[in-house]
Design goal:
By secondary structure, the chain is of the alpha/beta class. It folds into three domains: 3-87 and 139-216, Rossmann fold; 91-135; 222-314. Helices cover 53% and strands 12% of the residues. The protein has 17 helices and nine strands. Strands 2-5-8-1-9 form a five-stranded parallel beta sheet, sandwiched between helices. The protein has a two-stranded antiparallel ribbon with strand order 3-4. Strands 6-7 form a two-stranded antiparallel sheet. Strand 6 and strand 7 (184-187) form a beta hairpin. It is elongated.
């Protein structure tokens, strides 16, 4: 596929400004850096490697791109021990076994008479049939290559996979192709938009990083966080939105085992809305703090600070 044909498949990605506006239509509040990375990735045909704390919108960027562009999202969740068969393809062994049993029942009828060489040739034809595309079960990497209208390929938490799997990815990310030994090399009909995410569980190799555009997404400032929560929790009162975001921003300044992410801010906003809270108060914060903080040690560490933090957030300008 030519560069012109590829571009036409993702024609909405016409400029960083268009990307910002388009993502906003599906509730993703982008930044100039994020939109520029998406724009360059598409035009340079490079994957985006997104790093940053958990829950800041790395995975959600891929989901939102797929939703906005109206293309499939093919997601590969990485973990230790992930291998090619789980990421690329598997054979439909149950179907192969069924067909083998049918063939066995009719073996004499199918093979007929003949010398050993001829019979071996006939069996070889059936072997080729059993390892054809109709018996192939595509996994996320292969499925993304087969999409005729393009797709977003999300390789989530790539840092959790082994180094051997990281090396395997290089063929996919370099040439947008995968190799199935029984079928040969399969080229992407429309190269997917590839998004890799990492939470820095381990250091990624230089070879992988060279093939990607790097993007770091950190915790947002107060204005962007208010915009994100407002988009995800429609109808929330402006005064409550301002107060809860101010509280979360202050919370991230504390020495915590895990700082609350954007996802947790959104969950907290939904919880407060469900409880019909109109303004932050110390008692309400204490009762719902477990929505924001995931470790009891963090909740205990804030025991004597919750009141002052809540009062400061309630009077935030």
């Amino acid at each position: 596929m030519t560069q012109t044909e590829t571009s036409s498949a993702y024609g909405a990605l016409a400029s960083p400004e268009a990307i910002t506006a388009g993502l906003g239509e599906v509730g993703y509040i982008s930044t100039p850096d994020i939109s520029m990375a998406v724009y360059l990735a598409q035009n340079l045909r490079k994957p985006i490697l997104i790093e940053g704390p958990a829950g800041v919108g790395k995975t959600d960027l891929a989901r939102s791109l797929a939703e906005w562009l109206d293309v499939p999202l093919d997601r590969l969740q990485c973990y230790e021990g992930l291998d090619e068969s789980k990421a690329l393809y598997e054979w439909k062994y149950g179907k192969q076994l069924l067909y083998t049993q049918i063939l066995k029942d009719r073996l004499n009828e199918v093979l007929g008479e003949g010398d050993l060489s001829a019979l071996t040739g006939k069996l070889g034809d059936f072997e080729d049939l059993f390892f054809s595309e109709q018996f192939l079960e595509p996994r996320p990497l292969l499925r993304a290559m087969q999409q005729t209208k393009g797709s977003v390929l999300l390789i989530d938490e790539v840092d959790k996979a082994d180094e051997a799997f990281e090396a395997f990815l290089l063929e996919v990310l370099s040439d947008y192709q995968v190799t199935v030994p029984e079928l040969g090399t399969i080229f992407a009909q429309v190269p997917p938009i590839v998004v890799l995410t990492s939470n820095a569980v381990r250091e990624l190799g230089d070879a992988l990083k060279r093939r990607c555009l790097h993007l770091h997404i950190g915790f947002p400032d107060a204005a962007r966080e208010r915009a994100i929560v407002g988009a995800r929790v429609p109808g929330i009162e402006a005064s409550l939105l301002k107060q809860l975001v101010a509280f979360v921003q202050a919370l991230r300044e504390e020495d915590l085992r895990k700082q609350p992410s954007i996802a947790e801010t959104v969950d907290w906003a939904r919880a407060l809305t469900l409880l019909h809270v109109e303004a932050l108060g110390e008692e309400t914060v204490r009762q719902t703090l477990n929505v924001l903080l995931k470790y009891e040690s963090d909740i205990a560490a804030l025991e004597n600070k919750v009141g002052s933090l809540a009062r400061a957030a309630a009077s935030a300008p």
